[in-house]
Amino acid sequence: MPQIRFTALQEAQRRMAPEVELPYTRVSEIFGEYTFNYRSMKEYMTPEAYRSVSDAVKKGTKIDRGIADQVATGMKAWAINKGATHYTHWFQPLTGATAEKHDSFFEPTGDGQAIEKFSGGMLVQQEPDASSFPNGGIRNTFEARGYTAWDPTSPAFIMGRTLCIPTVFVSYTGEALDNKTPLLRALQSIDQAATDVCQYFDRNVRKVTATLGWEQEYFLVDMALFHARPDLKLTGRTLLGHAPAKGQQLDDHYFGSIPERARQFMRELEMESYRLGIPVKTRHNEVAPSQFELAPVFEEANISVDHNSLIMDLMDKVARRHHFKVLLHEKPYKGVNGSGKHNNWSLATDTGVNLLAPGKTPKSNLQFLTFFINAIMAVHNHADLLRASIASASNDHRLGANEAPPAIISVFIGSQLTATLDALEQLEKGKLSPEQKTDLKLNVVGKIPEILLDNTDRNRTSPFAFTGNKFELRAVGSLANCAQPMTILNTIMAQQLREFKAAVDAHIAEGMKKDDAIFNVLRDYIKQSQNIRFEGDGYSDEWAAEAEKRGLSNVRTTPHALDFYVTDSAVKLFVENEVMNEVEVHARHEIMLEEYKMKIQIESRVLGDIAGNHVVPTAINYQNKLIQNVRGLKEVLAPEVFQKVAKDQLHMIESISGYISTIIAEKDAMIEERKRCNAIEDTREQAIAYCEKVIPYFDKIRYACDKLELLVDDELWPLPKYRELIFI
Ligand code: ADP
Ligand code: MG
């Protein structure tokens, strides 16, 4: 009797939804109470320290050491007041998770007494034991140590009883060992490049920030059932399991009533998010049963990325209190819709203008078109790099399957803007006549409506869609750290804007008027970037064929997609924009390949174990029951009757034997294949071998296991089934 499944089922079924008490009536009462925000800073810091931090955030100025001591004193007083006993530097190593090392404020003074201590030095820099974080060879080649350094642009916060200080994580030689450092550099690059271009339109613009609004999809599963599934526990997804009789065919889940237990979880999660200053806004059920989405109001990209990392941690913590496990994996269940994390992205000026929102006047619309067309051009020129930025073993399950954006990068802009670009494309080269200019202003640029109607009817199959006042990068995985795609997107945009400015300035130097020059360059870009634009169904086979004709890449697997990180042009791009140097790029490539390989290796081992230790013995057990029964029938029945009634059971016994043999044979072959792969020295070759040689066994083994799940007596089956995982 497979105790664990049935105990888990009982436990899960018996659970009641706890009523979450909210200690406030209005969100504003608690919003940000656990963050060291401007309000707390004003209260706990000297005016001098306050000004210094606020300048660092707004203008990127440095905070000097003396001031750091004052900031630390204020931060400590605030944190202790809120009940914090420890502090930690909080960072995002390349493992994808977040890391922290807690130290106590408490320090003995040597006379039998103690004080609470936290100095500027402790705030500004720390040396975590970095040896266990991936570094792609950086620390081996250079210096053995890495350190974390305070990022004052992202507010410190309290989790539990710990003051968490957002930091970057770099090696002693300055190479980035985390996700945040390149992001901050990319954000600086886009700030400079976009501010320069803004000068054509408005000389008051001093700073441009990238904005990000992510939409986090996830699944919830009961904790007891989760623990009864070793594959979910160890790999984040089910490696086997037959599709339930009732799936999402009915589409009755989407926006359906949120089950009470999930609703209580969300209420508590929202409360904790508000306390941490994360402006979560929407909650609803997703397409699949037990799938949900959480989205905040957009924020400055660095803060938004931190908030996403933080909320992924927070979800897990809050879920435990509700006996749920949060599944962030892109594809926890085969045949059930997967999870993504749309990244809504735009650029905003310090004068309050969204550069990707159409304006009221032709002038503001020319600015909009400039940024809009440059974004299309950036994706056109660097589509492959954008593809690489969303590559991971788990996201491979989504990209390329007919439910998420395809692995082909394209841009959707809607029919209204397509018409605008078509009209602009007709412009003749060179100076514009006064009539042409008037016509443009009145009939093209002036006609762009402030609110783009057809963008409400969006193309959900596009990986990069314009949605009225922002682009939405839809191909990001639910498990991903948004820093990677945001680093790439902002870097390619920065590069593109620099090239644009150089081209416009060259025309101006030749004597062209500014507006003429801008129109001329934009017209060229529209022509050059035609190929990347696609308005049709991104899931269709026709599109795959059409994209191939257009010369667009369609790279379906991670190890190959990652190649785009290290092409000469990509390295040049990173170096020129001061986002990463050559060593950092190659190190990252190496780390991502290594991570890919490990993920597949673990899945392969876990699948082999479950198939061998759970499925095969269960099948044999049931087969023995059948054999006993057949023997009994033979004893009691006349031979001709026996032949007739035992036929089906004998057939089942044979089928079970067949599947058992398949599992054992394929499992052994897979192990041999893994051995061959492990002998490969080159990381890239090895990752490719795992992808092409090991993964194909997964489906073969799974197929046999899933058939057995259907054949074997339900009472004997040890693993919670899909219908139980998804519907309870
Ligand atoms: P969907 O229909 O794809 O679910 P929603 O309208 O729910 O989209 O979500 C829109 C998302 O876009 C929100 O997360 C919001 O914060 C974000 N967003 C809106 N404006 C901007 C902007 N200017 N920059 C970045 N993100 C934005
Ligand atoms: Mg969306």
From TrEMBL:
<dbReference type="Pfam" id="PF18318">
    <property type="entry name" value="Gln-synt_C-ter"/>
</dbReference>
<dbReference type="Pfam" id="PF00120">
    <property type="entry name" value="Gln-synt_C"/>
</dbReference>
<dbReference type="InterPro" id="IPR014746">
    <property type="entry name" value="Gln_synth/guanido_kin_cat_dom"/>
</dbReference>
<dbReference type="Pfam" id="PF12437">
    <property type="entry name" value="GSIII_N"/>
</dbReference>
<dbReference type="InterPro" id="IPR008146">
    <property type="entry name" value="Gln_synth_cat_dom"/>
</dbReference>
<protein>
    <submittedName>
        <fullName>Glutamine synthetase III</fullName>
    </submittedName>
</protein>
<dbReference type="GO" id="GO:0004356">
    <property type="term" value="F:glutamine synthetase activity"/>
</dbReference>
<dbReference type="InterPro" id="IPR027303">
    <property type="entry name" value="Gln_synth_gly_rich_site"/>
</dbReference>
<feature type="domain" description="GS beta-grasp">
    <location>
        <begin position="85"/>
        <end position="174"/>
    </location>
</feature>
<dbReference type="InterPro" id="IPR040577">
    <property type="entry name" value="Gln-synt_C"/>
</dbReference>
<dbReference type="InterPro" id="IPR008147">
    <property type="entry name" value="Gln_synt_N"/>
</dbReference>
<feature type="domain" description="GS catalytic">
    <location>
        <begin position="179"/>
        <end position="615"/>
    </location>
</feature>
<comment type="similarity">
    <text>Belongs to the glutamine synthetase family.</text>
</comment>
<dbReference type="InterPro" id="IPR052725">
    <property type="entry name" value="GS_Type-3"/>
</dbReference>
<dbReference type="InterPro" id="IPR022147">
    <property type="entry name" value="GSIII_N"/>
</dbReference>
<dbReference type="GO" id="GO:0006542">
    <property type="term" value="P:glutamine biosynthetic process"/>
</dbReference>
